Amino acid sequence: MSADLERWRLILGPASERQTGSLNGEAAARDAALDWLYGRDSDLDKRGIRRGGAKGAGDGPSVLDTVEWLDEIHRLFPKETIERLERDAIERYEIADVVTDVDVLARVEPNPNLLKAILRTKHLMNPQVLAAARRIVEEVVRQLIEKLSVEVRTTFTGSRVRRPSNHRRARDFDLRRTLTANLKHYDPELRRVAIERPYFHSRTSRRLEQWQLILLVDQSGSMAGSVIHSAVTASCLYRLPGLKTHLVAFDTDIADLTSDVEDPVELLMSVQLGGGTDIARAVDYGATLIENPRRSIVVLITDFYEGGSESRLVHTVKQLCQQGTQVLGLASLDEDANPDYDRGLASRLAGVGAHIGAMTPAHLAEFVAERLGS
């Protein structure tokens, strides 16, 4: 079978074999691995397509368990495909043992989607599985902090004003000004600029007066991505001089997690996703933490689907804005910032003075830096 026919056979399934021919060797193994996962799709029955590989689908026996399937896809597919297959197993088909089986967790590649699944299912895990899951949490958090901390440091400690300096340090060499000032010494034969006088600049770092940042994070089931990135963002911001950071998670109850904000792994392992949502109660609690209203930023991270009192929420946000507190309502806080939220309630909050939007953790850091510098 040619490579093109093989590709079409993998895409179209067994029904296409009259035209493409049968698969053999690794191609057949790839088809079995794909069928184990995607054969679960209920739409196949509606379209009259029968599959044989997936557990409970078709007439044939299951040939793979989850551990064997993971071993197979790691042998048969490139990294990008493996990540997609693992994500679909976790999110699309909710195959629980991907995150509740020690052997599976030992094989699966740590990634943010797996972390979300762990947070949703850790209440089902025994101590041995929890220990294996914690390895995943630690690795993903390490990757996120490594990326975000650079962006936060750049935002808050990068040069704000550059001024001429007599201190000659290589890192402060002003290339543009030096070239401009010495162009008259250009030698066309050698094609070089003779530098008679080099120029340097000094960096003026941001000086932060004492501010409070209060992160209120909805921990309902749909907000797992926001909870993860809020914890990591809070940890990165917590160490900044002049900024006092609080982290509060809420559903219908409230959990002040500020004491754990330096350890985002421990923080995430203590979060309980799910339950209802009382945003008004969370904002009321956040208001009690404010020490200086004009030096405070309240960031509300939620989908704005209020299970409590909308009128009370709007009233509290209005009071906060009137007293000079910056209120930011975020519909999403993950790497993609794809918002899904109640636009009606969000619009009401914007109408009383809140800033409403969707942004990534890096953009949140920029927003906070701008407010602190104003």
UniProtKB/TrEMBL annotation:
Protein name in the entry: VWA domain-containing protein
UniProt cross-references to InterPro entries, sorted A to Z: LolB, Uncharacterised_CoxE, VWF_A, vWFA_dom_sf
Domain VWFA: 210-369
SMART domains: VWA
